[in-house]
Structures are given as C-alpha cells and as structure tokens.
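Both lines are retained for reference:
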Amino acid sequence: MKFAVVGGDKRFVRLASLLAADGHETACFALDEVPADEMKSCELSVYTAVQSADCVILPLPVLNLRGGFNAPLSAFSFDAEEILREITKSSVVCGGMPGDKILKAAEKLGLDFVDYYEREELVALNALATAEGAIAILLRNSPITIWESRILIVGFGRIGKMLAERLRALGAHVAVSARKDGDMAYIRAMGCEALDTRTLGKELGRFDTIINTVPFRVLGKDRLMLISKRALLIDLASRPGGIDFEAARELDINTIWALGLPAETAPETAGKIIEETILNIMREKRGGI
C-alpha cells in the first residue's frame, strides 16, 4: 500500500519512517528541511508524492495559526486547497482537525476525507502524551517541585483526567475544576479537590500552577488579576486557547501556551499513535493491509 505524507511536524517524520519500516511504499512532500539521516528525500512536487497513493496523510492540524498549510518543516509555504486539487478521488485523504473550509473544499472535489482527530484511539493516547508533555514543561519551568505544590487543572476531559492522576501520584495537591456535578463527584472520588469552573474566583490565588485544558476563554483579565504573580500558567487548549495571553503579559504572569505537545516531547510515540490510527482507517476502508 502506498502512503503519501504531506507536511506536518516531527510526528510526521516518524510516521513516514514507521510506515516504510512496516513495508509500505511511502512518499513525502513539504518535509524538505528534515535532515537526510532522519528520512529519505522528499518529492519535488505534491503531484509526484500523491500520485497513485492509496492514502494521503495531511498534518494535525491541517492549517497553521495563520490559516496556511501546516508545514513547519518546509522552507516553502503552500495553499491547502491547491494540495487537495492534486489528490485523486481514488485516494483516502486523512487530515487532523481540518476545519470547515478544508472539509468543504474536499467535498467539492469529491475526495474521501477522514478527520483522524475524531478517532477515539488517537485522541485517548494523544491525551496521555499531552499529559506527560505538560508535566515535562512544568518540571522545566517551575522553581518548585511537583511534590507538595498546589496545582489547579481547569477542565475534566481526557487530558484533565490523565493529568490529575499523574500529578497526584507525584505528590501534588491537585484541584480540578469542572461544570458538571457528576464530574465533580468523580474528581472528589479520585482524591482531588473539586471546584466549579463557572465560579472560579479568589481561590485562584492559592495555586502555584494552573493548567488549562478548556478550548475557550475561561481565564480572562478579571480572573487573572486574582492569580499570584509567582504562579505558572500552562494552556494546553487548542486555539483560541483558554487564557487571555495579552492580559497575562500586562499583569506579568508567567504563561506558556503549549500547543502540539506530543510533537515536541514524544514525536516517536505520537507518530506511532497516528500510524496505528491511519492503518485502522485504511483497514475499514480497504480491508486487509
């Protein structure tokens, strides 16, 4: 089976290598700045890369923060819709978090497009890698140990759950905020303090670290003014994020927006997670691989 890996970060370098090691034909494009010892050379055109490909794999997310094609390991910039136009209808196109614009363009072109970030096997394992990456950032940027530190996790989704378990195991005093009564009951059952995200107030000032996992604004200027100047804020949420970063800068609060953590802290594992997900998709689409 032929796979074309088009764009992406370090995860996709490892993905291409893993697919090749498993015996699949692989072609790459928009990874031209990757050292030669890390992968074979890229194709010179997207057409050459995707020609006769059974599956074309696009980045996670497909678009970068500026709305362009997500290709941080290329010296060139690309238009995502132009790339889609080079892909034949016989290929399965897999892209992560494509957004409405890309989905509509793919539909108009008659492409079989799958958002692999909607797959449970990927988001569950990706959440684990993100949680571990957040702990690595905390260790590098906090002047105190995790042990006996006071940490608030905003949000009790997959990442929030995995973070709470791991930070508590490392000896932190962990509080988690949620909106649902059931979630708050589970938080208490885990041995953590439960807070209501909707009513977070003066208690924010007692935490050494606040980690946000909610992808909408939950820490605006009014709440940021209640946070200790010595605190570290880490935002794990995808854009637009959950923290008012401009207000945080004005208030001189140490804030880190940690997007795409698995790519930075565990690219090999993250690449393997994407490979497993893509192969599952292709088995469902094409049968045995």
Remarks:
- The longest strand covers residues 173-178.
